[in-house]
Design a protein that fits this description.
Layout: E1 14-18, E2 24-27, E3 33-38, H1 43-52, H2 54-70, E4 81-84, E5 87-94, E6 101-103, E7 107-110, H3 117-144, E8 150-154, E9 161-163, E10 168-172, H4 180-192, H5 201-210, H6 214-224
Bound molecules: zinc ion.
The site of zinc ion has 3 residues, from loops.
């Protein structure tokens, strides 16, 4: 049954039943495996659905494994590279400097603050992210003729943005590591939800009017999300 691991690398999926109407599989970037199913569907049917999707499951797991081996947590050492707006910048550890963490075509970290490096980097990324999202939302909202209410940052590992019906937007600060056009895509995507709440074809028409290359941007995020981390 679906409660057994599919193979030595693929765990048994976690089953979540709800009021939905169809079965869906989800494989998280960290390798978690979830099946979402309606209350009325028998376990046998869920098992059959998983079997039919086996090729796809294997494909996603292969990619996830590759990405997990490629990703190495940062150690905050001299010469290490950090992403910012799609480019990599080296880290220099300085002994005599004012301030804690600076960015001048490279990252410069005060040696005394090495134990806080991770916190300082996140704070720096968050400040940059907030400035950038504020500017881009203003620009694209004017372009698209929509009004939003507020902008907040989130730190969720793999959710890039969200939009509430009241116009409150939320963006993942990790996106500031991605190229500008990827950031713009996420901004346009969330603003388009102010017009069309669901991912219907009407929604994509709204996105398409302002951001033509949304398919490429979406694929880029899928392929690179493991890099938008440290
Ligand atoms: Zn959406």
């Amino acid at each position: 049954m679906y409660k057994r691991p599919l193979s030595k690398d693929i765990p048994a999926p976690k089953l979540i039943r709800s009021k939905r109407r169809s079965i869906a599989l989800e494989i998280g970037p960290d390798g978690t495996f979830t099946v979402r199913a309606p209350h009325f569907v028998a376990e046998q049917a869920i098992q059959e659905f998983i079997s039919r999707k086996r090729k796809w499951i294997d494909k996603i797991y292969n990619r996830t494994r590759q990405q997990l081996t490629l990703f190495r947590p940062k150690q905050f050492i001299e010469g290490e590279r950090f992403l910012y707006l799609g480019n990599e910048y080296t880290l220099h550890i300085a002994q005599d400097m004012y301030g804690k963490l600076l960015f001048e075509e490279r990252f410069i970290l005060n040696e005394r603050y090495l134990p806080d490096a991770r916190i300082l980097f996140e704070r720096w990324y968050r400040e940059e992210a907030f400035m950038l999202f504020t500017l881009r939302c203003k620009f694209y909202a004017g372009n698209m003729g929509v009004r939003y209410n507020s902008i907040n940052l989130s730190g969720a590992k793999h959710r890039w943005g969200s939009c509430r019906p009241n116009g409150n937007l939320r963006f993942n600060w990790r996106l500031v590591m991605a190229p500008r056009d990827i950031i713009d895509y996420v901004v346009v995507h969330e603003l388009a939800h102010l017009v069309e709440p669901d991912h219907s074809s009407r929604f994509w028409t709204v996105v398409d009017k302002t951001f033509k290359d949304h398919r490429e941007a979406k694929n880029w995020l899928k392929d690179n999300q493991f890099r938008l981390n440290f």
